[in-house]
Amino acid sequence: MAELLKGKPVADALNEVLLPQIEDLKSKGITPTLAFVRVGEREDDLAYERGATKRCETLGIERKYYVLESDCSQEELLSVIESINKDPGIHGCLLFRPLPKHLDEAAACAALDPAKDVDGITETSLFGVFANQPKGFPPCTADACMQVLRHYGYEVSGANVAVVGRSLVIGKPLSMMLQAANATVTMCHTRTRDLPGVCKNADILVVAAGHIGTIQAAAVREDQVVIDVGMNWDEAASKFVGDVVFDEVEPLVKAITPVPGGVGSVTTAVLASHVVKAAQRAQEQ
Prior knowledge:
42% of the residues lie in helices and 16% in strands. The protein is of the alpha/beta class. The protein folds into 2 domains: 30-113, Leucine Dehydrogenase, chain A, domain 1 (Rossmann fold), CATH 3.40.50.10860; 140-264, CATH 3.40.50.720. The strands form 3 sheets. The chain has a 6-stranded parallel β-sheet with strand order 1-11-8-7-5-6. Helix 1 runs parallel beside helix 10 (263-284), helix 2 crosses helix 10 and helix 6 packs across helix 10 (263-284). It starts with a strand and ends with a helix.
């Protein structure tokens, strides 16, 4: 039976570090504040918003909510982002994505002040990740994967890591973060030839393809650590499931993150840590 890499212990450890930092900021008259910008009522957005809200409430981080109709105009969205940029009391902004198809998502991301980009959506933040420089913040989910591996003591340096998924939200930035930690990384996706064979050779397998059933028993082996980043709504089972077929894979590998209760629960703690760091940077300036 595999070790379950549950997210709660990782998040709790992050909370212990954050609480005194937040108290220190508040003693100086600064309350870390996060703005949520959501367009429409997507269920996955709402689930993440609930989790992030609960995390912020627990830590004492203030929240502001900007909710737009699903058919809002580009001008309305950009106006909200501009108001957040100009508000010195807001230290971080979470823009839920993907946006509805009629909106220019790239323009919306570019409009956000990089200093308030706590989820790695601006070019400045992504440059910082790809160049391994302290500019902006990495995407929260990619950062959460690193936190899970670090917390449970799985060595990244020198390891062979396969990352399934090539999005700018997780796959690409995570591969850069792993390489910066001296891992040897193979980038894969759903069209990779012999995907199971490539995955099976990895010491650490990170799956962020966004598709139910991407990884099955044939793609894993003993002594392998599997990080399942997927969060997919399974209509038949009426529940969220990962990209990995858990019941097939869990008996075969050394360790695996559950879904839910794995990477997702760490992501909100990472988001909170980015907001606190943004508030500290603003205070220093």
